[in-house]
Design a protein that fits this description.
Elements: H1 3-22, H2 27-33, H3 39-46, H4 54-64, H5 68-71
Helix pairs in contact: 2-4
């Protein structure tokens, strides 16, 4: 991956983790609230190690009990 893509994934992962913690959810609870996402996927996303599909983004939002719009509301710069 290039440096810009790595940085975006890292910042998004930090945002996801922050949302999860603020919601008082564990990674396991995200998995239980979602349709198909796994704990490994949640961990990889939070650590900026996974570039994922649109359907995973929707499932992640469902697991966090937020709208996809809120999930994408983070600064890239």
């Amino acid at each position: 991956m290039d440096i810009l893509k790595d940085e975006i994934l890292r910042k998004f992962g930090e945002h996801v983790k922050d949302l999860r913690i603020k919601s008082g959810l564990t990674q396991d609870e995200i998995v239980l609230n979602s349709s198909k996402i796994t704990k490994g996927t949640v961990s990889d996303i939070e650590n900026g190690k996974r570039n994922f599909s649109f359907t995973t983004l929707i499932d992640l939002a469902k697991g966090l009990n937020i709208s996809p719009k809120d999930l994408l509301n983070f600064k890239i710069d």
